[in-house]
Amino acid sequence: MGRSLSPFTRLTLLMSELKGLPIEDLIDVKKCDLAHHVEHLPEELESDEQKAIAVQISEQGTALLASIHSGNLAGAEGERKTLIATCRKLKDLL
Prior knowledge:
Blueprint: H1 7-20, H2 34-40, H3 48-70, H4 73-93
């Protein structure tokens, strides 16, 4: 079992993966842990404002993964950009 990450570190890793990997690699758990990061982020935050944005990130991440799995790569690119912007918004609050 790995050590737990701070929300800031988890968010930094998530943003790095979103920006640095080809869209198809975001579903490869050996290269990216997108599903894990977006699942755990909301439960790691305490303020209501931060939690609300983290829930948004979780929902956007789930939608992004669904688009990639369904082969909608053009739609997934737009979702990736939206998710990165939402991550930046949360990072500014941390």
